[in-house]
Each structure stands twice: as C-alpha cells, then as structure tokens.
Amino acid sequence: MIEIIADNKIPFLKGALEPYAAVRYVDGRDISGSTLEEAVAMLIRTRTVCNDSLLRGSRVRFIATATIGFDHIDTGYCNAHSINWTNAPGCNASSVQQYIASVLASLVIRNNYSLRGKTIGIVGVGHVGKEVKALARLLGMTVLLNDPPRARVEGQSGFLPLEEVLAGSDIVSLHVPLNRSGVDKSFHLLDQASLEFCKPGAWLINTSRGEVVDSDALKHALSDGRLSGAVLDVWEHEPEVDRQLLDLGAIATPHIAGYSTDGKRNATVQVVRSLGTHFNLPLTDWTPEAMPAPENPVIIVNCQEVPIEQLVSRVILHTCDVMDDDLRFRADPGDFEKLRGNYPVRREFPAYRIMMLNGTKEARDLFLTMGFTVIES
Fold it and tell me: pLDDT digit string (tens) for 118-155?
C-alpha cells in the first residue's frame, strides 16, 4: 500500500484515500524531509515549498497541489528528477469571480459608485480573468484585456499593452501567475514606473500573488492620491503583512478570494482524480458525498422601484460580503493562517435561490446568467 502525505487543511479529503493508501495528514508548513519518510506522493497547498531541500533523497514521485498557482513547486527540479506534479487549474475561478463581484457590489452600495459605463482592466485572462471579464460585461462595464502569453499565441487583437490598460481603466484587477524571471516576468509587474500610468483615481484589486505588486510603490500611490483605493487579498511575504499597507488599503483580506467551499471542493476533486490516474487507483471519478448548504439559501428580492445595479449588488453581498472578511482580518492581522484555516462556509451563486417579487425580465435574465436559480412569486 502506497504512503501519502496530505496537507490537513485540504477539505473533503479524509476518508477518500484510506481504502487504497496509508495517509498521514500534516500541517502544510510542517512538512519536511523527515516528515516524508516512505511517502511516494504528496497532496499539498501553497504553504509547502517543494524544492531540492525538501525532496532530495525522498521517494516522492508525485505531487499535487490543491491550488491554481504552483510557484511553490520547483518544477525544474521535479522534472529533472522524474517527479510528476500537477496543480488544479481553474478550480477556484468562480470563487474569485464571486469575490470580485462582492468588491464591486461593495463599491456600489457603500461608495455610491456606479459600475455602468466604467472601464475595468483585467491583467491576466486565464481561467479567473475570463470569469471576471464575463461578470464585468454582465454588469455593464467596458473591459480592457492584457495577457502577453495569450496575445503571442492568438494574436494582438483584443489585447492591449499593460500601460494602455492601466491608463484607460477605472478599476484594474490582477490575475497573473507569479513568475520571477523570463519573458513573462510578473514579479513587481506593478512597480513605481508602471503605477504612474494608472488613471488618476483608479482602484486596484489584487487577488493573484502579493509579489506581483511592489508594496512600497503601492503605498506611495495610495498616499499621494494617485489611486482612490486598493483591494488586497494577497500580500508580499505573507503570512506576514505590511501593516502600513493594510492601513492604507480600502479592503484587505487574508488570501481567501478563492476560498469558497465550492472552489475548495473543485481543487480536492482535481488532485484526488490526478492521484488516481497516476497510481491507477479507482479514484478517477471521485467526488465528495455532500456539500454544506449556505446559511440563508433563499434570497427574497423586491424589484419594484429599485435600480437594477443596487438590486444585483444587494444579492451579491448576501452570498459574500468582503467587508466581513476585512473586519475579521483587521481585528487580528497576525492571525493570517488561522483566518484562512478557519474560513467560514461560503457557497457560490448556484447554491442560492432568488424569490423575485415584482420581477422584471432584465433582472431575471441577469440573475440566471450569474448562476442563480430564480423563483418568481
């Protein structure tokens, strides 16, 4: 029977592998060379750095990370030493879309900000960026796209240089992987020079990686009023947090944009099925048995005399209110890992039913397109 080391924070996992493997559940930060012992496979998250110092001399031949990003895996080392690795692309794209939707809804409700006619610049148009693009267009926004890797493959049509996106956007949302070198280097992609291109008064949202933005440059741009505000879910050097940047940020959360229960489930499904395929185990069609229901799954909406933008924003905030996450985080930013590890159940739009009173076709179609079930009274 094969031995597997698994991060004890990967949800829905316990019991899935035990019929076929000996599984040891460990805090991801505590996985070390001595921890691996006889393990031939690892199921991890971002807190486990898989490199030469961890893997040298081990029997590990398979690594699956239950995350979209894989910058914590030294893929060159793994490839050179016949260690198969995989991530979970797209697993939490809808979760991040919901987080961005909550940010936009919060601006509408709490900042008297109208999205219609505004321009959002999406930097990185992969799984997550595509979801955000669809959401923004649904909410009546103009969308500008920047994605050099896609532009090289698909052609420049539809994509703009970063400087043009920054200059033309009222809101900029970052969805790029962290590349520290190479033609698509994204480390400090937004630094002092690039932030100078931002449209005065723009908002910045970063749910990608903290190191994509130069923290010192961002603090300067916020302090001097170049930007109206920043929404930060990721931080340089996390779990350590720059307290000055935290104070300057309009919305601050502890790397939980992709932490919907649905997104976590998707990631676990992908890594378990990948493990099953690699070791020829009967897990290639595995799914968890049940999902927790949202606390208030029915949303009653009275469409009468309420602007559609306000209506949609209220519904979004019912499913996910980033200010709740912000308040918990600011109360104790040193509890970064605990806040992530104990993140409350957050279900995505399809888990909710909307009961419409005095409904309009526009509202009904919009909610259906967003993934809600609509019940008309």
Answer: 999 999 999 999 999 999 999 999 999 999 999 999 99
Q: Is 255 a catalytic residue?
A: yes
Q: Is the pLDDT of residue 196 over 80?
A: yes
> How far is 314 from 110, CA to CA, in rounded Å?
11
Token pair 């992987």 is at which residue? 177
Q: Residue 31's CB: how many other CB atoms inside 10 A?
A: 22
The single residue of 211, 238, 309, 348 carrying the catalytic annotation is 238
Question: What is the per-residue pLDDT for 327?
Answer: 98
> Look-up: residue for tokens 């302090």?
223
Which residues make Cβ contacts (< 8 Å) with residue 88, sequence separation at least 6? Answer: 64, 65, 66, 67, 68, 266, 267, 270, 271
User: Which of the residues 47, 61, 209, 340 is marked catalytic?
Assistant: 209
What whole-number distance in Å separates Cα of residue 239 and Cα of residue 335?
A: 9
Cα of 76 vs its chain's centroid, Å = 25
Catalytic site residue from 47, 175, 188, 255: 255
In 10 A of CB 68, how many CB atoms?
23
